[in-house]
Design a protein that fits this description.
The chain is of the alpha/beta class and 318 residues long. Helices cover 39% and strands 10% of the residues.
Length: 318
């Protein structure tokens, strides 16, 4: 199931391209370039492990190492919201190799977080902080809810699970609207099509149709969230990650979109170029993988999400 074509290059180089072509739209939201581009002075990140930078600088993907010393280089192989922050020269304290004094960005995203935890993250921030017109809020959450629903199938009917997925999508939309009501400018990513993940594909080989069940759950969740949010572009910029992941597979964006690059015995935060499968290690093939683990996106895919998120901020009438 391998495909040809090179994946994304180093994020610094792609950033230059995205700046040059910033008027290209990604996802939904505003449709014209801002007269005065929104320039955030702080990022506040909510969600799950796809956005997390741990206090030691590790991410849930393939972590970069210095080729000479073997030391972690947290600024390289950035996840999507780390890329977005770098686009505005904003820094998270969790990854601050240049020792920027008192980084302003805030990290509320947590590994394993679900929609209910996202509500708690908002509560925690509002209990001790404010949201200003120059804050950029980032949200990506829901995958862990969907994996939990998927685990109930077929003991629980698909129709019943779809209803639960829709209800969760509505709740996510309501919580995102809370940020808009607080005068926040939010970049919201839909959940990727999890039916395209290596885990779902492996399940499908054993029981045909399983991957479609997960894709259907993902779609139901995302659709209800989109219907619920205040989607006029002024406060919420939407990036349709579900559709983009489908395009990546359809148009062979990555050299390998079906397999995980990391060894299954290694935790996502411990995955590095030294802990990859033999196929991924060969000639740095991992740089062209879509998935780092059987359910989490690779640095190349995260890079693409970062580009789309930056484009959405650039074009939204925040």
């Amino acid at each position: 199931m391998k495909r040809i074509q090179r994946g994304a290059g180093r994020y610094g180089r792609v950033l230059m391209v995205s700046l040059a072509f910033g008027a290209v739209l990604a996802g939904c939201g505003g449709g014209t370039q801002q007269i005065e581009p929104f320039a955030p002075t702080r990022m506040i990140s909510f969600g799950d492990e796809s956005s997390v930078i741990n206090t030691d600088g590790k991410k849930h993907s393939i972590n970069a190492l210095n080729t000479t010393t073997g030391a972690l280089e947290c600024q390289n192989n950035p996840n999507w919201n780390q890329y977005l922050a770098a686009s505005y020269r904003l820094v998270f304290a969790e990854c601050n190799p240049d020792k920027v004094a008192s980084p302003s960005n805030l990290m509320y995203a947590k590994a394993g977080a679900k929609v209910a935890d996202f509500k708690k993250q908002i509560d925690a921030h509002q209990a001790g902080g404010t949201i200003g017109p120059k804050d950029l809020l980032t949200v990506l959450v829901g995958a862990n809810d969907l994996w939990a629903l998927y685990a109930k199938f077929p003991a629980q009917s698909q129709d019943s699970l779809m209803a639960e997925a829709r209800a969760l999508g509505v709740e996510l939309g309501r919580q995102v609207n809370r940020l808009a009501d607080a005068n926040g400018r939010t970049i919201l990513l839909t959940v990727p099509d999890l039916g395209l993940s290596p885990k779902a594909l492996a399940d499908d080989k054993l029981n045909a149709g399983r991957a479609k069940v997960l894709s259907d759950l993902t779609h139901a969740f995302n659709i209800e969230m989109r219907i619920t949010i205040l989607n006029d572009g002024r406060f919420i910029g939407l990036v349709d990650t579900e559709v983009e992941t489908q395009k990546w597979v359809r148009f062979q964006q990555f050299g390998n979109w079906a397999d995980a690059a990391c060894l299954p015995t290694v935790a996502a935060t411990d995955c590095t170029p030294k802990t990859l499968t033999t196929a991924a290690t060969a000639s740095d093939a991992w740089k062209n993988y879509m998935w780092a683990t059987d359910s989490l996106l690779s640095p190349a895919a995260q890079n693409q999400l970062g580009i789309m998120a930056y484009s959405r901020v650039y074009n939204n009438p925040f």
